[in-house]
Amino acid sequence: MDKLIIEGGVRLHGEVIVSGAKNAALPILCAGLLAETPFTLTGVPELRDVASTLKLLDTMGVKVSKDAEQVVLDASDVASFEATYDMVKTMRASILVLGPLLARFGTARVSLPGGCAIGSRPVDLHIKGLQAMGAAMHITHGYIQASTLHLPNRRLQGAKYYMDLVTVTGTENLMMAAALAQGTTVLENAAKEPEVVDLAECLNKMGAKIKGAGTDTITIEGVERLTGAQHHIVCDRIEAGTYMVAAAMTGGEVTLKNARADLLEAVIEKLREAGATISHDSNSITVKSDGKLKAVNVRTAPHPAFPTDMQAQFMAMNTVAEGVSTVIETIFENRFMHVQELQRMGANIDVQGNTALVQGVSALEGASVMATDLRASAGLVLAGLVAEGETVIDRIYHLDRGYEKLEEKLNQLGAKVRRSN
Ligand code: EPZ
């Protein structure tokens, strides 16, 4: 198991280039299944989850070619319409092949994703939405068996569907399915995340007719076919936010290139409230701080509210900020796995249900800790950057799922981070 070893106490300075968004790349790669001609993507991040998705598409018969600059997918000869348990258990976002397979081929067999460290992560809204479009959906032996073969022209039918909960991948799956449906689909209470918008922009380049992405009502007029397109993946707002917190906590000055402040308004607001100075232009953000931050209350909610994927990072920040703060997690039922690890570093945190009460301490102490999920791991890295002494983070394969070249980028900013196995 790879470990990260971090020597704390260094103020970060310099520039770092933000990669393409993991949570935009994953649905957009799956959208490649919808295209009858080759489909070219640039700005795709080098991540474990991207590699897993490309492997899944390859097993289905999609021709994948990839170099440092671009990924080209050719789904003109897909032979398998299945995502097995082995595949889905390593990456739950594999569920995103369900909508495209059903829309283009009329059949799909996708393993139910199990739960994960942060929660049970059901996909009932994905299934109900596809049923609303006429699909026959059966759950047998842990698999979703889906079909449209009983429908006129074997095509999904446009429908109006209200999602009980805001679901990011649920919105994405249904948007991709509706793109090739017969008639118009209206998704209400849709997720407004920037990654949903990026997917819609990519689908429209492929010939889809989608309006309203980024609002809570998305209208999709089904078309006969979609063709390949060229698309550049939107920057990763969560990676950017993570480095912004690192700059604020360590008391440095960092400029993030390929970062969009308009995607991070809630995070920027909270960092300013904590005492960081933030300036930006259209594609870069600069964070400056003396490292003496004030504790800030955080409550996660769907975009444009404060993102759950930044909750662990802000909890780490609050553990060494001045004062008491509450961190309330409203999206996932078990997204406090980083708490006990932070407590091992000397943090003063008391968890009651979905609320963590954080009392800032003067300093954290380096310790051996364990990564449990992607963003919890990011929180531990941030804590290690400011802790006294050395922090060893185990099981950092979680980090490699969502942060491209993490130690390289941090060391470029002056941090002392090394990987060992
Ligand atoms: C996406 O997960 C992201 N993953 C997550 O990022 C992110 O934390 C999450 O959205 C919330 O923003 C990708 O985009 C690949 P949801 P997703 O469906 O779509 C419940 C990261 O760290 N729900 O928006 O799986 C669900 O249990 C990852 O990059 C249902 O009940 O999340 C949760 O409580 C972690 N039934 C809430 O909705 C459903 O059918 C929001 O989940 C679907 C969801």
- Indicate the structural class: alpha/beta
- Biggest beta-sheet profile: 4 strands, mixed
Strand content: 15-25%
Bound molecules: ligand EPZ
The helicity comes to 25-40%
What are the segments in which pLDDT stays under 50 over at least 5 consecutive residues? Answer: none
The number of strands is 24
Q: What is the first-to-last residue Cα distance?
A: 6 Å
Strand ordering within the main sheet: 22-23-1-24
Q: Specify Rg, calculated over alpha carbons.
A: 21 Å
Which of globular, elongated, flat, extended, rod-shaped describes the shape? elongated
Give the averaged pLDDT, no decimals. Answer: 96
Description:
This protein is α/β, with parallel strands linked by helices and 421 residues long. It contains 14 helices and 24 strands. The chain has helices at residues 22-31, 48-60, 85-90, 98-105, 124-132, 168-179, 194-205, 237-250, 265-274, 311-319, 337-344, 374-386, 397-400, 406-412, and strands spanning 3-7, 13-17, 39-42, 63-66, 70-74, 82-83, 107-111, 136-140, 143-147, 160-162, 184-188, 209-211, 217-221, 230-232, 253-257, 277-281, 284-288, 298-299, 324-328, 348-352, 355-359, 368-370, 390-394, 416-420. A 4-stranded mixed β-sheet has the order 22-23-1-24. The longest helix is centred in the middle third of the chain and has 14 residues, at 237-250. 52% of the residues are buried. The structure holds ligand EPZ.
